[in-house]
Amino acid sequence: MLSYIFGNKKATEVAHLIWERIVRKGDTVIDATCGNGYDTLALLRMVADESGLGRVYGFDVQKVALENASSLLEVSVNPNEKELVKLFHRCHSEMAEVLPEDTSVRLIAFNLGYLPGGDKSVVTESQTTAEALTVAKEILMPGGLISLVVYVGHPGGREELETVEEFCWKLPVENWTCCKIQMLNRQLAPILVFLFKKC
Amino acid sequence: MLSYIFGNKKATEVAHLIWERIVRKGDTVIDATCGNGYDTLALLRMVADESGLGRVYGFDVQKVALENASSLLEVSVNPNEKELVKLFHRCHSEMAEVLPEDTSVRLIAFNLGYLPGGDKSVVTESQTTAEALTVAKEILMPGGLISLVVYVGHPGGREELETVEEFCWKLPVENWTCCKIQMLNRQLAPILVFLFKKC
């Protein structure tokens, strides 16, 4: 975290460090935007152990993203571990529909923007992001975290950030800590938002 | 730092933790807004050792603030340590004028707003804050930090934050990391801004 302030870490690295402080072996977590699967893999490594209880539910509306994520997992973990990841070619606003009933979700991670290396005209949209956050808020367990890395350099990126901020403003301070971390002299740098559901 | 995201620490506590990672014994540091002296005291404890080389230069435009800071130091440290603090009843925009020539300054701390418990009509002003930041930028050593805790709940608070942000936007990314940390669902919570001058 301090490394970020001192310019030695990237936003995604900071996000991973914070996830590591929250996520435990055997947890259920959600990668709301699989992209090329780097977050999915990082999350899997945090929840996987010999108990086989850990689960990573991954979502993306782009088939190519899920294929990339699946390939990355294939070459990075053993088949038993890969089994702990459930990938869905669906919008993250539908995440509650595929989860087993009464699942306690420790972390829900969003990467908002377009697929790196993919079709830049396909971006996450403010409307479905707002819907997904509303769902995420409900299914997250107390002591859990919603983590957002918001890219703002593409058309619609700023509006999506505003949608996230508006969502945060309404979260009651008694139950939520909503922290936004931003690089002021790098206008296109991703913005970090962490929503912690108090115990 | 993580404690802040999880709602367990106050903004000023986070600032102190970050200062501790930067400031070394024997350093020269500046408390640009002494207030009641709590930051001055914290800084003194970070720089003071038996070498007697450490210095804290403190500024405030309110005499009562300097009296309070002086009293706090009186009861908190021994006279030798207190000697390492130099308090000035001057605006922080004049900080360079009282420093010995060629002083390397490791940290410059600002608390923007009004004096807690004091006259709420006396607040730091955007114009002198901008001037002070321009001076601070020059006298800070590479590897040093400008730390700002910006209170926004009083009239003019938001404008002052904008002044700080405008100042940050112009700092070249090659030489500066400018990180803003904000609680999104606590509109009146102080905002943290850390400007790290790269080595």
From TrEMBL, chains A, B:
SUPFAM superfamilies: S-adenosyl-L-methionine-dependent methyltransferases. PANTHER family: S-ADENOSYL-L-METHIONINE-DEPENDENT METHYLTRANSFERASES SUPERFAMILY PROTEIN (PTHR35276), TRNA (MNM(5)S(2)U34)-METHYLTRANSFERASE, CHLOROPLASTIC (PTHR35276:SF1). This is tRNA (Mnm(5)s(2)U34)-methyltransferase, chloroplastic isoform X2. It comes from Ziziphus jujuba (Chinese jujube).
